[in-house]
Amino acid sequence: MTTTVDNSVENIENTLELDHVESHLHPEPTFDVDAHPVPMGLEEIWRFTPLKRLRGLLEGTASDAVLQREEQLPEGVSLGPVPADEARALGVNAPFDRLGALAAANAGETLLLDVPANLEADAPVHLRLSGSSVDDTVWAHHVIRVGAHASVTIVVDHAGSATYDALTRILVGDSARVDVVTINDWADDAVHAGQYNVRVGRDASIRLFEISLGGDLVRTSVNVDYAGPGGSADLLGVYFADAGQHIEHRQFVDHTAPRTRSNVEYKGALQGQDAHTVWIGNVLIRKVAEGIETFEQNDNLVLTDGAKADSVPNLEIETGDIAGAGHASTTGRFDDNHLFYLQSRGIEEAEARRLVVHGFFNDVIRRIAVPELRERLVEAIEAELAGADLSGLDRRPQTGTPAEGGVR
Fold it and tell me: Helix, strand or coil for residue 67?
């Protein structure tokens, strides 16, 4: 099956005429692999990532391996390959780092998920991607194109074992409404590098959920910009790291148009020796982006000794004419007040702690529009907690940077 690229997405494929902003936090995007040097591990965008655990992905050796794919497509939605040159011509940002550029270069073919203009999908799109061996290096380049005034929910489910590097570029047409839910429920030995580059059209909105539960190493980045005023982006995440796992999420929201909006909210829990999570958030408000509103927040709940959470919010402002901007970050143990409230009503301490964890995640999970998916995630969190001894933890105060440097 071959899908032809057309121009049905109004305005969204136009190149943004904005100068690149020099920053160590967001290098200039390009498909040129050689323009992204092999990292040494000291660079700002790589310093938290254990490079040796990427299992050679940065070397970029081509491979014919693929993930098994199952798909459920509502009527009117199509999925098929497009030529690489046509896929790259779609007007959404090129890769921001070497992993993204290698994914596009080595993918072999680009899959285009096409939601035509004005379509209101009657069911979610569901893609299930699974691997059979961590020795299989798999490269992927996906494009999701949602036409003007369309409405759709897209679920991408990862499972099994693989060494996987994927670039996903998402174009949201004018006045479209899109939910994208990505689930990283890999086997314990899997390695997953993912980059999601999103362009939001005029008066359009996207909610992108990231759920990271499995894998030896998961490193993803989400990069958003705006093709016109009125666009809105919510980036929401839930992650749970066990002993030895490294889970890293990075977001860059580039407010390239006036009267746009963004909200970033990621919540994570850690348990076990050497469990490590990393969250890096960055919002850039350009001079042209007057009247925008943005907030980013990351909260981490450390459940056992030996686990470590790194959380770094950033805010770059080039104009004073904004409706609101700020960020917050917290990392800590259980809240004494919550535990006291539950125990005072006869709930045992260990059960009270489990209820606190569920409540911690529920604010994000409840916003997912697919009921069976919400139920599955609640069960997955319960399964993670089943292996933890929560009864003997000390109660340390939370630390963080509430709305540090923000304007609200």
Answer: coil
If one counts every other C-beta atom within 10 angstroms of the C-beta of residue 125, the result is: 20
Contacts of 119 (CB under 8 A, 6+ apart): 76, 77, 147, 150, 151, 152
Would strands 276-285 and 246-255 be described as parallel, antiparallel, or unpaired? parallel
Run of H or E residues at 309: strand 308-317
What sign does the CA torsion over 255, 256, 260, 266 have? negative
Quick: pLDDT tens for 267-305: 999 999 999 999 999 999 999 999 999 999 999 999 888
The answer to pTM > 0.85 is yes
Q: How many CB atoms lie within 10 A of CB 5?
A: 18
The one-letter amino acid code at 119 reads: L
- Residue closest to 272 by CA, chosen among 393, 136, 378: 393
Centroid of chain to Cα 385: 23
pLDDT digits (tens, 9 = 90+) for 104-117: 999 988 999 999 99
Q: What element of type H or E holds 111?
A: strand 110-115
Asked whether the beta carbons of 364 and 267 are under 8 A apart, the reply is yes
Q: How many CA atoms lie within 13 A of 215 on its CB side?
A: 33
Written as six digits, the tokens of 274 are: 């050497």
